[in-house]
Amino acid sequence: MTHTSTATSAAFPLTIHPHWRAAAEAKGFGILQRIKDRYHLLLSCHTCRRAHASKIFVLMNSQPQCPHCIQDRWQADAVAAGLKWAGRDPEDRHYAHYIAPCGHNLRRQFEMVKRAAEGVCDVRCELCQQHKEQEEASAQGWELIGPDPNRNQNYRLYQHQACGHVQRIARANMQTGRFQCSNCGEGWSSAPSFLYVMQLKLANGAKLIKLGYSRDPISRLYHQLLKTKETEAQVLRTVPISSGHTAVQIEKGLHARLKAEHPDSVAPPDLYAEELSVKSEVYFADATQVIFAMLDAIRAEEDT
Description:
Blueprint: H1 18-26, E1 29-35, E2 40-45, E3 51-55, H2 56-61, H3 67-80, E4 84-88, E5 95-99, E6 105-109, H4 110-117, H5 126-139, E7 142-147, E8 155-160, E9 166-170, H6 171-176, E10 193-201, E11 207-214, H7 217-225, E12 232-241, H8 244-261, H9 269-272, E13 282-284, H10 288-303
Antiparallel strand pairs: 1-2, 2-3, 4-5, 5-6, 7-8, 8-9, 10-11, 10-12, 11-13
Helix pairs in contact: 3-4
């Protein structure tokens, strides 16, 4: 029905033309009334039943967007991303504020939160992340100073608490301890090391053992050797060796003996290629006691 005002004092015409109504209905809206001036209408969204102002030009020439439905989608994205909606950013229409599970307020782009809701990326709290990285550094005797001056996202700038040296270090290396201070640290060849025996159970049930050397066998196992969480693994035994150089020489001798004296104990690489990041030096579990005996002899020599 067409409404025509009879008031002569109206600041703008109140007529709603039939073709406007038809266009609105076709695009998911109803027209409630004209508002503000001759260019605006008050539309009612058929989806959420809430009203918003729209220009007549927008209605007739494009698809109006209900701001209430848009905000509902933003809020749904926040929930799916594990966040709590805290309102739009008044300074940038592309951003909003969210409350993270830790309670901190995060300012993020809508599209970034949408990707997080879809599982494409994660949303993390900068304050909590910085605290986590500082704890990682402290565990290794270092202090986190800040981001990498060369702007490499994988590196951070740290200061060694022992000598005060400042150094760029990959965060992955800080987490695993597989690095040294370039000012006072020992190289791998002169630093103390360990021979180790690791017990492995593959996803297919095969039981294997790995013989090797490392300055940090635990880090070697969980951060370098294993390729999948399906593999059950543990360090069975370690023997401290005075230096990495000595350890590698002893290890080579052990592998040579095992291949010569117990060739049937050598596990074929195809058996473990999908789960371990090595191509040799892996044996069937029946060689465990033989290797233990070898390590006992080496320990006795090291102790004398």
